[in-house]
Amino acid sequence: MPLADHSLRFAGNRTGFLLIHGLGGTPVELRLVARALHRSGGHTVHCPQLAGHCGSEADLLATNWQDWIASVETALDRMKTQCDTIIIGGLSMGAVMAMYIAAKRPQDIDGLALYAPTLWYDGWSIPWYSFLLKLLIDTPMGRRFRFVEREPYGIKDPRIRAMIVHAMGRGDSAAAGLLGTPSGAVKQMWGLIRETRRSMGTIRQPALIVHAREDDVASLSNAVHIQRHLGGIVDTVVLDDCYHLVTIDRQNDIVVERSLGLAQRLTAAFAARESAGACAVAAE
């Protein structure tokens, strides 16, 4: 049976945000930011549900990273018919996917909004022995392994954390994502990261990186590495009062504010190009 579609869509103006959730996650991770981008900026926002997500672990394992990319490209093709300027972004692995597509389809992407981008799990809540998974991933023990969510679940605010934990306890993966991520899905993510890192230098669109200084899942070294290796202008914002899930934690308003600023700059640049083109035609 096909999974129910929990994608988020907000119809707005000709500047669009295509935002991608994380591994084992859900579009709900992006709902606060998506709604604010639409209400405050009037922008079109789409947060697609990745293939295999918002269901069971078996549903996730039945897909690969190419399937996840295909979900985003389908949404991108739709957004191209609605928007003149497109900013692609996402949370955690979703930010990595955004970079991959920006490198693959540079003509379709005008900017990037990368929220807590994750190339490696090295935050302070990650067990020290997690590096062993790469050595054991193809063994029977490695194939049975699951990354189980643990305190503080990427959230510093205790009220928000309690709500997420409650949803996880109910097994509601559409609302809170999977409680445990199977190793097979993590292996797929490694493949995506490997391909993305190879092409980072070719990504020349303006980029915004928002990362928490105290990220419990992916340390600030992830943002530093990406900033150094992207090929275009990079604006990096370091948050001081939240953890990994920057789109729903205490400082999500800053995430929105800086994303709106990026959209404003890109929209102005598009208008300037259109004006210059019209003047050139008139001069002829």
From TrEMBL:
<feature type="active site" description="Nucleophile">
    <location>
        <position position="92"/>
    </location>
</feature>
<dbReference type="Pfam" id="PF12146">
    <property type="entry name" value="Hydrolase_4"/>
</dbReference>
<dbReference type="InterPro" id="IPR050266">
    <property type="entry name" value="AB_hydrolase_sf"/>
</dbReference>
<feature type="active site" description="Charge relay system">
    <location>
        <position position="215"/>
    </location>
</feature>
<dbReference type="GO" id="GO:0016020">
    <property type="term" value="C:membrane"/>
</dbReference>
<keyword id="KW-1133">Transmembrane helix</keyword>
<dbReference type="GO" id="GO:0052689">
    <property type="term" value="F:carboxylic ester hydrolase activity"/>
</dbReference>
<feature type="transmembrane region" description="Helical">
    <location>
        <begin position="118"/>
        <end position="137"/>
    </location>
</feature>
<keyword id="KW-0812">Transmembrane</keyword>
<dbReference type="InterPro" id="IPR022742">
    <property type="entry name" value="Hydrolase_4"/>
</dbReference>
<keyword id="KW-0378">Hydrolase</keyword>
<dbReference type="InterPro" id="IPR012354">
    <property type="entry name" value="Esterase_lipase"/>
</dbReference>
<feature type="active site" description="Charge relay system">
    <location>
        <position position="244"/>
    </location>
</feature>
<feature type="domain" description="Serine aminopeptidase S33">
    <location>
        <begin position="17"/>
        <end position="250"/>
    </location>
</feature>
<feature type="transmembrane region" description="Helical">
    <location>
        <begin position="85"/>
        <end position="103"/>
    </location>
</feature>
<keyword id="KW-0472">Membrane</keyword>
<dbReference type="InterPro" id="IPR029058">
    <property type="entry name" value="AB_hydrolase_fold"/>
</dbReference>
<protein>
    <submittedName>
        <fullName>Esterase/lipase</fullName>
    </submittedName>
</protein>
